[in-house]
Design a protein that fits this description.
The complex is a heterodimer. By secondary structure, chain A is of the alpha/beta class. Chain A is built from 13 helices and 13 strands. Chain B is globular, with a radius of gyration of 18 Å. The chains are: A alpha/beta, B alpha/beta.
Chain lengths: 339, 260
């Protein structure tokens, strides 16, 4: 007689980004090259080739830390629509994308807020008006374990969070009785984003990327995503990667595009290089209070400039960047963002 | 800390000091932004120099130089033991290494359950809040959870939450284990502008432990939608010392959290 596993509870949130592990294996076999290919291209080309309308998208870094902003701006410039966003500590990136009308759905661990800086007017407005739908809830830990399961090529992973809450009720997780301990255990489903974006300090032409400081969940997310775009402060020679192979956080065979974008995380923080640009973040949060204000921001910083280099000039160029570098390296205090 | 008490302190300073004193040296604490961060930094610079501070984005054991704005800020791994990953630190909590979780809270019920997801209906919210973030993980997986709330009122101490984001004691004694959460952990202390609370051992309902200077039991009760358990004897919270106050100003010189 077949034994069955007892399902104790099932979240009613929408299951986003899951594939049968065999289907995903087959997809990887066909679409991901294990060959050494020069993947350097412009941000414009990378978005054109690898970000599609309706994609389930996840963005690396954490909150306002090491966020690939040049790609975010380019997605807005190319007017992608109906993106389904992984709200994994998604802060400035998702807020801009929502404000620009690129997003229709969010799976939310942390979105619509800016940590200490307060709630996000654009994100809130979109959800409260129904323009953007929250399809499921989860926690930060739960979300990164979805990517861990994806990276491992397994259908789900057991965890001990979420149980007993409405966060579970609105998630895509299930709960079963653990066949070993006999206790209830949560299962979070694997997640395979259609595309994931990262900003790193160094990467070679093939996509071998190093990360300084905390990895957050980039290690797992990059390996789980079907398409990976990397922007890097600088492209380094493959010899540099091979000299210290223990530093490779993301290996070339999961990467599809490599774009060299100095200061490519601005206004977010790049560890050891530049701090948050609080003045710029404040400008967005102030303008985003109205639809017209948000539009004004995009006209000025996205549609009104040809590319990220022109944007950098607009936010103060080298003067701003060297000041943010001073703050990051504790050689200057945090300037008062109100002034 | 009993000598040289301050007679002129702000509410934020009081909350930070009270919270800081709850933390023990040589224990691990998982910290969120804002007051929890300031309180932990104060503990590190006073009675708990070897407190192990952990941030959800992967910072482990830093000597935090100035107040981080984000839990992923590079200040969260400044002179740290490790700059790691979310998988690593969440797993450490799940495996039992983390003694305290330290969270800010917006709305709570008598069992210490939290809502940070939505006000109104989930499908068509009146106010959409950020969601769990790491709070559900921390409240599920760390041994003891501490909350700081600046604004205890009938609207934040609620009889029934509109959404249960993060587990407290759920519906009472034994409910966490029955739901499948790790055994033997849960909310420990709640610090508000009025007093410090714990949870009754039998019922797991909110119980008053101390009143801040000048606050009455009536005020505590009037600022709650549910009945708070009141013991016979209630001590008065010790105010900040001059030293604590000075260190707090060093930690947050621009008044980002403490106010100008």
């Amino acid at each position: 007689m077949a034994k069955t596993i007892e399902i104790l509870a099932e979240g009613k949130g929408e299951l986003i980004g899951w594939h049968d592990p065999d289907d995903n294996r087959a997809w990887v076999r066909e679409h991901k090259s294990r060959g050494l290919i020069d993947k350097r291209m412009s941000v414009q080309q990378a978005v054109k080739r690898f970000v599609r309308d309706g994609d389930y998208m996840a963005i690396g870094g954490f909150g306002h830390v090491r966020v690939p902003m040049s790609i975010v701006y380019e997605i807005i410039r190319q007017q992608r629509r109906d993106l389904v966003m992984a709200g994994k500590t998604a802060v400035h990136d998702i807020d801009l994308l929502i404000g620009a009308g690129c997003v229709s759905k969010v799976e939310c661990a942390y979105s619509f807020g800016h940590e200490l800086r307060g709630l996000s007017p654009a994100g809130r407005r979109a959800v409260e008006s129904g323009q953007v739908k929250v399809a499921a809830e989860i926690s930060n830990g739960g979300y990164q374990w979805r990517f861990l399961a994806g990276m491992m090529g397994i259908p789900f992973i057991p965890t001990r969070n979420l149980a007993g809450t409405d966060t579970f009720e609105k998630s895509s997780a299930k709960q079963i009785r653990d066949p070993w301990s006999g206790k209830p255990v949560t299962l979070v489903p694997a997640a395979y984003p259609d595309v994931a974006l990262f900003h790193v300090p160094r990467c070679d032409q093939y996509g071998n990327a190093q990360i300084d400081g905390i990895l957050v969940e980039d290690f797992e997310l990059a390996r789980a995503a079907r398409r990976v775009i990397i922007t890097t402060e600088e492209i380094v020679d493959n010899d540099e990667i091979r000299r210290e192979p223990d530093r490779t956080a993301i290996p070339f065979y999961v990467v599809d595009a490599v774009c060299e974008v100095p200061y490519g995380a601005h206004p977010s923080l790049m560890p050891y290089q530049y701090y948050f640009d609080e003045k710029h973040i404040r400008e967005w949060l102030t303008l985003a209070k109205t639809v017209e204000g948000a539009q004004q921001y995009f006209e000025k910083y996205v549609f009104g400039v040809a590319d990220f280099e022109e944007y950098l000039e607009k936010v103060g160029g080298l003067r701003t960047m060297s000041q943010l570098k001073q703050v990051e390296n504790l050689r200057a205090p945090l300037p008062d963002s109100e002034s | 800390m009993s000598q040289s008490l301050s007679s002129n302190y702000s509410l934020s300073e009081l909350l930070a000091c009270v919270a800081s004193r709850l933390l023990e040296d040589n224990k691990a604490v998982f910290v969120g932004t804002g007051l929890p961060m300031i309180s932990t930094m104060l503990a590190q610079r006073t009675h708990a120099p070897n407190i192990l501070i952990i941030f959800e984005a992967g910072g482990i054991g830093p000597q935090v130089p100035v107040l981080p704005i984000s839990v992923g800020d590079s200040r969260t791994f400044y002179r740290a033991m490790a700059a790691s990953s979310m998988h690593d630190v969440m797993s450490a909590a799940q495996a039992g290494f983390v003694d305290y979780a330290f969270l800010g809270a917006a709305a709570m019920d008598t069992y210490g359950n939290l809502n940070t997801t939505v006000i109104g209906d989930w499908e068509q919210p009146k106010v959409r809040l950020p969601g769990s973030g790491g709070a559900n993980d921390l409240g599920s997986l760390c041994w003891r959870t501490l909350y700081i709330m600046r604004n205890q009122s009938q609207r934040t101490f609620m009889k029934k939450l509109e959404f249960l984001t993060t587990p407290g004691w759920l519906t009472g004694n034994g409910a966490r284990e029955a739901a499948g959460l790790p055994a033997g952990c849960g909310p420990y202390r709640v610090i508000t502008q009025l007093g410090v609370y714990g949870f009754d051992e039998q019922t797991k309902r909110l119980t008053l432990l101390s009143l801040h200077p000048g606050v009455t039991v009536d005020e505590v009760q009037a600022n709650s939608d549910f009945e708070i358990l009141i013991p016979d004897e209630i001590p008065v919270t010790e105010p900040p010392s001059i030293t604590e106050q000075r260190i707090l100003r060093e930690i947050d010189p621009t008044g980002l959290v403490l106010g100008k």
